[in-house]
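Take a careful look at the protein record below. Let me know whether the structure tokens fit the sequence:
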Amino acid sequence: MTPSRAFLHGFLFGLLIFTLANVLAAHLLSDCGLPAILGADSCADDIARAGFPLIFFEQGGFAYRSIFNLPYLFLDSFIGLLFSALCGFFTAWRKSRNQ
């Protein structure tokens, strides 16, 4: 496996981990879990939240409110890409070191 292929594998693995962390955070932070984010819940006054490490979306509640923070979404995306790139560089470095 070439270092560029190792980087790609590490990058995709980091992206998968970050995506799963975001899905898990959306499930745990929302009142009725992941169905609240998808709009398939049966809770009357739940609050749906999304974003990890920064919450960029919040909607619902007894006194209804809807918040979407675009800079937090961009910052979350940047953190995810940075984490994925670091995983890719680390994987490529380990691969080149073990050859």
Remarks:
- The mean pLDDT is 91.
